[in-house]
Amino acid sequence: MVSIEVENKVDVATSHERKVVRAPEHLSDPAQTLSEMGFVASTYDGVIVISGGAAAMQEGSDLNSKIKTVLESLFPGKAVFHGGTDSGIMAIANGAITTLRESSAGITVGSFGVSPEIHVEPHFGPTEDGKYHLGDQVDGELLVQSDVTGEWGNWGNETGAMYQVIDGATKNLPSVAIVCNGGGITLNEVFANMDQGRPMIILEGSGRAADEIARIINSDDSQPVDAKLHDKFSQKYNSGEKKGLFTVVDVKSMTEQDIATVIQAKLAEQKNTQADSVQFTRQ
């Protein structure tokens, strides 16, 4: 068994503690890794997976503010899994968790990130040149070690390990993935969610991969903005039997409350399905 490295980080300004785990991209014991990250399933009533990217999302925009409000209503009681860095949709999620924790000490929400080790700085405070900050609310961070350089450099090498730990975290908890913006790596995460049978909410209007996914699901035959993303998803979507996992919401036209209601309903469906499965097993 390949060993993993674990260390604790503390933000001296806020006393926030973070567990940092370093492990190879193929986890030999995902349950152990989850435990070392500080994840305890009994603490939460559900899991929300954030799938999305950082590019082309304008910081401080009205749309970002709207998405943050939606996440604030969804996160209490949940473990949130994401890409870890303080950018794009991950930064919005981090901001939502910050607001929740500052507004009420009694709110339970967990923040768990998975990133390629080479690209991020796990410490609180300044980063090295060229490295990305982690969100300051991250409780447990898995840094995936890989020397493989692909289409996006080392980005994307963490996806396999990410979905190993997410699969472990959702064994007995309902889960839903929220897909916002993103590029080719996000599509790979969407495919991983499909493989694990996880319902996905596609935020149409957030840009890039999310919009191309929505275009295909909605049978919109207009010219795709990104033909490469469009064709990659179309091939997978149209060749499988998991079309029912997708729900498209128009993030620009729907209200925050309506978007949150759709996502909460999907979580409730998952919870009921799991309860029925347990009842069937007992019979």
Description:
With 283 residues, this protein is of the alpha/beta class. It has a single domain, classed as 3-Layer(aba) Sandwich (Rossmann fold), CATH 3.40.50.450. The strands form two sheets. It has a nine-stranded mixed β-sheet, sandwiched between helices. The chain has a two-stranded parallel ribbon with strand order 6-7. Helix 2 packs across helix 3, helix 2 runs parallel beside helix 8 and helix 6 crosses helix 7. The longest helix has 27 residues. The chain is globular, with a radius of gyration of 18 Å. The chain starts with a strand and ends with a helix. The relative contact order is 0.15. The C terminus is likely disordered.
Total count of helical runs of at least 4 residues = 8
Shape: globular
Topology-level CATH name: Rossmann fold
Give a count of the beta strands, DSSP E runs of length 2 or more: 11
**Main sheet summary:** 9 strands, mixed
- Sheet-strand content, in percent, reads 15-25%
Low-confidence spans: pLDDT under 50, at least 5 residues? 278-283
Report, as a whole number of angstroms, the end-to-end distance: 38 Å
- Secondary-structure element order, as H and E? EEHEHEHEEEEHEHEHHEH
Structural class by helix and strand composition: alpha/beta
Strand order of the largest sheet: 1-2-8-5-4-3-9-10-11
Q: pLDDT average, as an integer?
A: 89
